[in-house]
Amino acid sequence: MASQGSESKKSLISSGPITMVLALFAAVIIGWSLFWFVASRRADGALATWIEHEAAAGRSWICPDKRISGYPLEIEVSCANPLFQGEIAGKKFTGSLRGLRVASPLLRSQTLVAELEAPLIVKTSDGAVDAVAQWGSLGMEFVGRPEAFSRISLLGEQVTVQGLLGDLEKASGSASNVLAYVVSPPGAAPFSYDFRLTVNDAQAPVLDSRFGLQPPVTTTIAGTITQANLAGAAKLQDSLEQWRVAGGKVDLKTIRLASGTSTLEGHGELALDDQHRITGNFPATIAGLEPFLQKLGVDPTLIAAGSLVANVLGKREAGGGSRLPVPISIADGWLSIGPVRSQVQVYPLY
């Protein structure tokens, strides 16, 4: 009897730590599950509040078949066939996706990662836009609060667009990839953001023929935008006017376009005048863009003429070969190349 009691006591002692570990593990799982559940309810409530705020501003977002998942490491909200209806730049738009997935790491609630499932169908009530976009993959990342974000980025692969886009009837275009980001760098002035947009291997037959470009075309635009305060304006035109009044500028540090063997490189600055038209000056160099100049209504033989080059547009760069410095400007609603005003008219944005 003593021997059996001793063995039973030893068994209890040896199983005690295991029982404590299992109990602690169960408590952690239950606690984490409750934490995830509360966080998911908060996320759902925040989404509902944002949708109500957008509806009050005349923009309707509908998320059919909404599902909340992602346990245990993230909170994921997904929709099948989400729909948008509202006004953008004075036009009534309707847009729909096949699917949308937005996820946030549980311990980094100010980071959102979105995956968009093609196709995207966009239409306007006046019929000016009726287009379909497809892609192999398209993702976005948001870091920070909507009114004070620190980074927004987009990456799309194998992007195509077809349809009616304003006066571009039966337009079609494609790009092997599209990369864009807007970031608030450390130590930057308030409401100042760096940005970059790169489109690689783009082809758009209508635009290529209209501007005399040779596909594929690669474009990069990068710079800094100031006074970009996103708070307090419900409509796009209100945001633009708020930006203009505050003295907002776009400092374009990099402008590069490569079309076949032709190139354009430059930099410059953009702003809005009191009639809400884009204004700016762009010191640039071009090579092999004679067809492009012709499409703009500028005679390339004049630019090639030594007198105009030397006296108006400046001299060729030393060692630059066929690269030609060309000052480009936008003022009073027109695009000009050197002293020659092109046929391109710039209309008010709003």
How would you describe this protein?
With 350 residues, the chain is α+β, with helices and mostly antiparallel strands. The protein has a domain at 219-350. Helix content is 26%, strand content 47%. The protein is built from 6 helices and 18 strands. The protein has helices spanning 2-56, 205-211, 236-245, 290-295, 300-304, 306-313; strands at 60-62, 67-69, 74-80, 83-88, 91-105, 111-124, 129-134, 137-145, 148-165, 168-183, 193-202, 217-225, 250-259, 262-272, 278-287, 324-331, 334-337, 340-345. The chain has an 18-stranded antiparallel β-sheet that branches. A hairpin with a 2-residue loop joins strand 16 and strand 17 (334-337). It is elongated. The model is unreliable at 306-321 (pLDDT under 50).
Keywords:
350 residues; alpha+beta; 18-stranded antiparallel sheet; 6 helices; 26% helix; 47% strand; elongated
Outline of this structure?
With 350 residues, this protein is α+β, with helices and mostly antiparallel strands. It has a domain at 219-350. The protein contains 6 helices and 18 strands.
Outline the fold blueprint.
Layout: H1 2-56, E1 60-62, E2 67-69, E3 74-80, E4 83-88, E5 91-105, E6 111-124, E7 129-134, E8 137-145, E9 148-165, E10 168-183, E11 193-202, H2 205-211, E12 217-225, H3 236-245, E13 250-259, E14 262-272, E15 278-287, H4 290-295, H5 300-304, H6 306-313, E16 324-331, E17 334-337, E18 340-345
Antiparallel strand pairs: 1-4, 2-3, 3-5, 4-5, 5-6, 6-7, 6-8, 7-9, 8-9, 9-10, 10-11, 11-12, 12-13, 13-14, 14-15, 15-16, 16-17, 17-18
